[in-house]
Amino acid sequence: MSQPRFSTCDLCDTHEGDVSGAFRVLAPGYHSYGGVRHFFGPAVVLRALEDNSKVRDLLATPGGGRVLVVDGGGSMRRALVGGNLAVNGAKNGWAGIVVHGCVRDVAELRAADIGIRALGTHPMRTAKLGTGEVDVPVQIGGVFVRPGDWVYADDDGIVISDRALHA
Ligand SMILES: O=C([O-])CC(=O)C(=O)O
């Protein structure tokens, strides 16, 4: 897929004076695991605490270039995304996944044609109890992310905006 080139640094330079809260930057701490390092799209937002049932359900639906943002509560005890989910998300046209929590199957994630950011890795998978809240605002990395916000991720960081910022 051809991508408009954007740079989160350039976006920050352009919007540094925006004190409205429309332009936010996630605090550092998210690492890149997917085969795509540079991705963007409108956010689908999910809160899922050590249960990835809804992550799996959403990645099985058409992504249409959107980015799945998962507030996993920062859990360092379970992995919310693994190789199968990443491949499925890529196949269904998701641009990326941002996980406030852990992922696993690092080699498979690296081979998947999708952007993945997460706090770390953990080899233990989550429960599958069907819990989780879809389409809710979350607060991760010190900022709010709301359904429909735009996400821009590259090697320098992750920007959240209430509107599209690329040309
Ligand atoms: O099944 C899970 O919970 C996560 C996983 O390992 C995968 O996506 O391959």
TrEMBL record:
Keywords: Lyase, Magnesium, Metal-binding. One of its GO terms (biological process) is regulation of RNA metabolic process. It catalyses: 4-hydroxy-4-methyl-2-oxoglutarate = 2 pyruvate; oxaloacetate + H(+) = pyruvate + CO2. Its EC number is 4.1.1.112, 4.1.3.17. Substrate binds at residues 82-85, 104. Mg(2+) binds at residue 105. It is an enzyme of class 4 (lyase). It comes from the Bacteria. One of its GO terms (molecular function) is 4-hydroxy-4-methyl-2-oxoglutarate aldolase activity. Catalyzes the aldol cleavage of 4-hydroxy-4-methyl-2-oxoglutarate (HMG) into 2 molecules of pyruvate. Also contains a secondary oxaloacetate (OAA) decarboxylase activity due to the common pyruvate enolate transition state formed following C-C bond cleavage in the retro-aldol and decarboxylation reactions. Homotrimer. NCBIfam families: NOT-MenG, PRK09372.1. This is 4-hydroxy-4-methyl-2-oxoglutarate aldolase. It comes from Comamonas serinivorans.
